Amino acid sequence: MLKKIKSKKNVKPIIYDIKNTFNNVNNYNSTENKSRLSECGFFWNEIPTLSFCETKGSSSDSEDEIEQKSKQKSKKLNTIERREQEKQREREIRQREEALANNQLPNSVDQFDRLVLARPNSSIIWLQYMAYYLQTTEIEKARAVARRAVKTINFREESEKLNVWNAWLNLESKFGTSESLNDVFQEAVRSNDSLKIYSHMLIVHVEAGRQIELEKTINTIIGKFKQIPEIWINCGEALLKIGLKDKSRHIMQRALQSLPASEHVNLMVRFAIMENKFGDKERSQTLFEQILSSYPKRVDIWSCYVDSLIKSNDIDIARRVLERTVIQTLPPRKMKILFKKFINFEEQYGTQESVNHVQQMAAEYVEKQCNKNV
C-alpha cells in the first residue's frame, strides 16, 4: 500500500513541474522524429513529395541496369576480350612487382607468412619467400614454400602458378638432383600448359649447360608440337646459345620440311637474326641474301637485315645494304619507306654530308617519277 501524502500543497507544484517537463520533452521528440522520419520517407500529416517517388523509380531502373550488365558479363568473351584481360593481368602483375620493388622486403618468416596470407595469389611474394630461404641455403624450406604456393594460389591464376612452377624448376636445376628435377618437371607438366613448361625447360638446360638433356627435351618438344613455328625457333635458339650451331641449322631444315610454305620466309628470317646474335655473322648475312634473292621486293626483310647489322655494330655493311635498297625499281610507296630509313640511319650513324647525299638521291628519284608521269 502506498503511503498517503500528507500535504497536498507541496504535491501540486511538483506535479505541475513534471507535466511541463514531460510536455517539453514530448514536443521536442515529436518535432525531431518528424524531421528525421520525413527524411527517411515517412510523413506525419504531410503529402509525400514526388522526389521520393522518383528516387524509388530510379533505384528500380538501376537494378534493371545491373541485371542487364550481369547478363552481358555472363556472355562468353571473344578472343579480343580474352587477350585484353590477359594484358590487364600482366599489367597488374607488373604494377605489383614495381610496388614490391619500391617497398622494403620482409626480413622474417612471420612477416612473409602475414604477407602471403594477405595476398595468397601473388607469385612475386612467394618467389621472394623462396629466395629468403635460398639466401641462407635452406633448400628444403624453399621447396616447402614452393609446394605450399602451388597449392595455395587459385587455379584461375594460371600465370601466377606458372611463375612459381618455373621458379621451382630453376631451384631443382641449381640445388637439386636430376631425379628431383624430373619429378618436379613431370608434376608441372600435369598441372600446367605443357608447352609452356617444355619451353621453360629449354632455358633451364641452356643455363645449366646440359647438352644431352637439352637435345632430349628438343626431340620431345618437336614430336609433340611440330606444327607450331615458335617451337622450332625456340629450339634453334637454345642450340645456338649452348654452342651447337650445326644442330641448330639442322633444326631449321627440319622446320622447313614440317611447316607449310607460308611460314618459310618468316622462319628463315628469324633464324638469320638468331645467327647474327648467337651464332655466325657471315652465316646470318648469307641467309638474308638467300631470302632477298627470292623476295627482293619485301621491304620488311630489307629492314630486318639492316636492323640486324646495326645491332651487331656492322655499320658499314648496313650502309651498303641500304644503298642497294634505294637503287631498286620498286613502287613509290615502298621507296619512300626505304629512303626514310636510309636518311634516319645516316642522321644517327653518318655525317651531315652523308645525310645530304641520301636526300639528294631521294630528290632525284622523285624528279624521275614526276618526269615519267608527264
Automatic annotation (TrEMBL):
Name this protein carries in UniProt: Protein RRP5 homolog
Every Suppressor of forked domain range: 185-369
Record has Zinc-finger as a keyword: no
Keyword field: Nucleus, Repeat, rRNA processing
GO cellular component term, pick one: small-subunit processome
SMART domains according to UniProt: HAT
Location(s), subcellular: Nucleus, Nucleolus
Any one GO molecular function term: RNA binding
A GO BP entry: rRNA processing
Composition bias, Basic and acidic residues: 78-90
Stretches the record annotates as Disordered: 55-90
Species assigned in the record: Apis mellifera (Honeybee)
UniProt keyword Repeat present: yes
InterPro entries registered for this protein in UniProt: HAT (IPR003107), Rrp5 (IPR045209), Suf (IPR008847), TPR-like_helical_dom_sf (IPR011990)
